[in-house]
Amino acid sequence: LQVPRAPSQPAAGSESRRFANKHSKKALKASLTLGILLGMFFVAWLPFFVTNVTQAVCGCVPAGFFDVLTWLGYCNSTMNPIIYPLFMRDFKRAMGKYLPCCRRSGEPRPSAISLSMRNSNSGPRAAASLKNVL
């Protein structure tokens, strides 16, 4: 005895597969971005910390070499604002919205008042008026 399937069931199955596929792509992209950021962090700062410990133990590290490794770590901090927009669309949109050099010509500039109200969670609320309380 076979039960006939409704026509909506295959569509729901394909919709759930598409939903799962979309989220797995996002998770893969987030993992890739995190891997790149952490990899760059370790490549830039691990030599500095190893040299720092070596310097504390034996004192045999030249000052110039130590300075070069310190600046390598600083360069890593400089790379983060470059990496985030390359891999994260939301970060790119936010930067374009608030930085004048990255804004598209058709987008309006946000006002300082709207930014402060958005960040402070203050603004007109229906439950906050005295009439609604009494």
Automatic annotation (TrEMBL):
GO biological process, one term: adenylate cyclase-activating adrenergic receptor signaling pathway
UniProt xrefs under SUPFAM superfamilies: Family A G protein-coupled receptor-like
UniProt-listed Pfam families: 7tm_1 (PF00001)
Keywords assigned: Cell membrane, Disulfide bond, G-protein coupled receptor, Membrane, Receptor, Transducer, Transmembrane, Transmembrane helix
Gene3D superfamilies hit by this protein: Rhodopsin 7-helix transmembrane proteins (1.20.1070.10)
GO MF term (any one): G protein-coupled serotonin receptor activity
Native species: Scopus umbretta (Hammerkop)
Entry membrane topology: Multi-pass membrane protein
Record field: compositional bias (Polar residues): 114-123
First-listed, main subcellular location of the protein, grouped into a coarse class: membrane
Domain (G-protein coupled receptors family 1 profile) ranges: 1-84
Name of protein: 5HT6R protein
Localization terms from the record: Cell membrane
Superkingdom per UniProt: Eukaryota
Transmembrane segments: 27-48, 68-87
Chain residue ranges for the region called Disordered: 114-134
Coiled-coil segments on the chain, per record: none
Keyword Metal-binding: no
Cellular component terms (Gene Ontology): plasma membrane
